[in-house]
Amino acid sequence: MASTTPSQTVGPYLQIGLAWLDTDTIAPAGVAGERVRIRGRMLDGDAKPIADGLLEIWQADPAGRFDNPAFRGFGRVPTKSDGTFAFTTIRPGRIGSQAPHLLVGVFARGLLKRAVTRMYFPGDATHDSDPLLSLVEPARRATLVARPAGDGSLEWNIVLQGPHETVFFDL
Amino acid sequence: MADEENYRKPLPGTQPEYLHAPYGSTRKRSPSHALVAAPQLAGELAGPRFTREEVGVGYDDLTKHGNAPALGERIVVAGRILDLDGRPAANTLVEIWQCNSAGRYAHAIDTHDAPLDPNFTGLGRVLTDEEGGYKFTTIRPGAYPWGNHENAWRPAHIHFSVFGPSFMTRLVTQMYFPGDPLLAFDPIFNSTADAEARQRMVSSFNWKLTVPERALGFHFDIVLRGRGATPREG
Q: Does domain A14-159 have CATH number 1.10.10.10?
């Protein structure tokens, strides 16, 4: 039987190999688009901060495209010792019927395989017609939508387990 | 999106579940809700690309990152990044990290009482060639104890991070060494139920990769998800 190579955890020392691509700024200066600051925390099933987590952000450009030579659309964002993370990017455009969103891969010690989720932007009238949001039971949709933090940035937490658990997708 | 363009699901048992209680850190970090089945759309079917310029030169030889040669048994680790149908993942980023020959990571939170090697950082990266091939020269990593359970030891391993052609093929795994007696006792290695799939993570000793007077060779291919319909038997 042929099979794919099994996934394994990144372990606690992931930063040795992966930190070189860490970034606070996914869209370099000069790339056109509306800048958005996003910050949050990564939490475990006891609501304790995850200090050895990593987000991989993959997103479209403002035109909804993934093949923009001036904007790769990829960023690696580590969590800090208090479980917080923060990054600045440009707001992506709609992709067909999909509302603007970031694709997010989550890695951490204790995660045997990547957890895949999405972050949507608040106050977007197109959420109801988004093909993925509409698959999520309404009570859990809020875990996929960032909130205005009051200081101009957006707040979005990732909860790996429990009653407030972020929705993760099976692709 | 035409169905034949989607990536096939891994066969049951060939990938770990999020919760694998013998690996203690999964107990509070594994999602408890069922994952939401979702379609593979434009973003999932695309992926980031990286250039040889940004990857840089010299990161394929981890024995030469210091002012003096790194300590330990030099090895060559080489293979190909393929998909399940044998298609090579060309020009794709492969990143590795590992502990030194004494079983110690060059990382502030590693408190294992084993010596650090000032000439070994334990990080490497390359882009694959047109055939999906890669090659690293490094030091054979040591085994080390960890706090998962009483007398817990991780088998020697090298962490591998691979992108492949799209968001769907992203994979982080670990490469192990053939004949390691610790594999049978390691909850991380054994988190995948299917024994044959687990063997995908074990490299093989290889004379052709062995460099005379210099380094033993180990072969390690990584198999990513395949795209399209399941190939017909026969």
A: no
